């Protein structure tokens, strides 16, 4: 009996760790040599095919099939109200029918703009120069106000450090309109966290008469680019559209595109984790898709706090006629988590996922001796490979529990046999 007990305990330790064959999917990780840790943004395949809402079915293996420790770094939170500052700006005047016209730009010794002078012939405001030379923090957004009561058009934003070489940062539509008793305003555009001394604003549709230019200052960590995935509407009833998102996806934005031009409708977005849970409001606002001056303008993405709810509802206000014919296009957006793993053993390393029976093995960054600002080498990832027949071994903790219960029962059985033998010996001695 003692031999069986020892064998059971040995077996429990032998079965403790999963192997790559236990997972539905795996992806090879390409790592430059000579580094102790590597990082990569979780690929979209993990969110599509992972089977745990907490991403707990992820594992990383080395070439020998051994587990290596890893952690997950969630994206930094976006500042609700970033610090903004107003910048000085100068209109540049385009000269018509004056081939010899010149523009003179005067700067102070510190590089800030002092004045712009031009010939006074047939002038038209078409561009603005914005002086950001005194700003040392990267810019995250730019916002405009203008005198015109109503305006819509495209603005092209370029950056330069010497007023000679310009690079495009962003182009987008801005507007402030009254349409079908709705106030439509979009006067802020995101910038890709750029540091530049000067900005140039070009207006292909004609420039408004600007009153102010404000920029948002980026003070947090730079976020990875958003991933986007089109969702499929599963049901619609009474102006409500129902759809689902991927498991474990921390959705924080929705691109909602209306099917017909010149449509405006109020909408509210809800989510919940389960079909028996109450709906929670995530966003409300105005959706629009308009044609102005032969340019299509539409609403910006709906933005809200990240959550991993899988059931969603878009409620449309149909009092103004709804959305017309066709189907709304909905794309969910999220910032993927960062996987950091320790390169123990020999490459190639493998990322495996897709096993609903397994428990999370993620560790803290402190346990892996990773500091917040520590530089970590980047790994790239190959295409996902499907394992059609995984063994899907159950969670090692569950295995240990049942094996220990079995060992306990065996021990009880051994004690029962020993007690029975002892009782028999006592009876024999009395006789």
UniProtKB/TrEMBL annotation:
Q: Which domain of life is it from?
A: Bacteria
Tell me the leader sequence span.
Answer: 1-16
UniProt protein name: DUF3999 family protein
Which InterPro entries does this entry report, sorted A to Z?
DUF3999 (IPR025060)
Question: In its keyword annotation, does this UniProt entry include Membrane?
Answer: yes
Keywords, A to Z, come to:
Membrane, Signal, Transmembrane, Transmembrane helix
Q: Where are the transmembrane segments?
A: 402-423
In terms of Pfam families, this protein maps to: DUF3999 (PF13163)
């Amino acid at each position: 009996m003692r031999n069986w007990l020892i064998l059971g305990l040995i077996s429990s330790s032998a079965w403790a760790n999963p192997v790559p064959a236990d997972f539905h999917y795996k992806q090879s990780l390409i790592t430059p040599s000579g580094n102790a840790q590597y990082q990569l943004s979780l690929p979209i395949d993990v969110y599509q095919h992972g089977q745990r809402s907490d991403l707990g079915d992820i594992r990383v293996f080395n070439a020998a099939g051994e587990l290596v420790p890893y952690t997950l770094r969630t994206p930094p939170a976006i500042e609700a109200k970033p610090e903004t500052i107003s910048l000085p700006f100068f209109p540049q005047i385009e000269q018509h029918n004056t081939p010899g016209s010149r523009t003179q730009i005067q700067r102070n010794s510190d590089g800030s703009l002092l004045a712009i002078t031009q010939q006074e012939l047939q002038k038209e405001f078409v561009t603005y120069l914005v002086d950001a030379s005194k700003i040392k923090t990267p810019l995250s957004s730019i916002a405009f106000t203008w005198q015109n009561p109503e305006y819509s058009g495209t603005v092209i934003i370029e950056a330069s450090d010497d007023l000679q070489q310009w690079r495009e940062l962003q182009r987008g539509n801005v507007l402030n309109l009254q349409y079908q008793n709705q106030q439509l305003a979009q006067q802020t555009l995101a910038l890709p966290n750029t540091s530049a001394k000067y900005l140039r604003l070009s207006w292909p549709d004609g420039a408004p008469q600007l009153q102010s230019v404000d920029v948002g200052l980026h003070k947090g960590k730079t976020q990875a680019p958003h991933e986007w995935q089109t969702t499929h509407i599963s049901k619609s009833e009474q102006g409500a559209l129902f759809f689902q998102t991927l498991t474990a996806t921390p959705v924080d934005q929705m691109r909602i595109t209306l099917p017909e031009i010149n449509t405006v409708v109020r909408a509210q977005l809800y989510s919940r984790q389960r079909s028996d849970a109450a709906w929670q409001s995530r966003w409300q606002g105005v959706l629009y898709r308009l044609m102005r001056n032969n340019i299509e303008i539409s609403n910006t993405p709906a933005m809200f706090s990240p959550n991993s709810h899988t059931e969603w509802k878009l409620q449309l206000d149909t009092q103004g006629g709804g959305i017309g014919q066709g189907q709304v296009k909905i794309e969910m957006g999220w910032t993927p988590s960062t996987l950091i793993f320790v390169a123990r053993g020999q490459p190639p390393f493998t990322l495996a996922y897709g096993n609903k029976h397994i428990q999370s093995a993620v560790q803290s960054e402190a346990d892996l001796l990773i500091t917040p600002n520590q530089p970590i080498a980047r790994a790239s990832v190959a295409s996902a490979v499907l394992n059609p027949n995984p063994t899907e071994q159950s969670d090692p903790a569950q295995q240990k529990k049942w094996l220990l219960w079995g060992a306990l029962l065996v021990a009880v059985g051994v004690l029962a046999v020993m007690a029975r033998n002892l009782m028999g010996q006592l009876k024999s001695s009395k006789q």
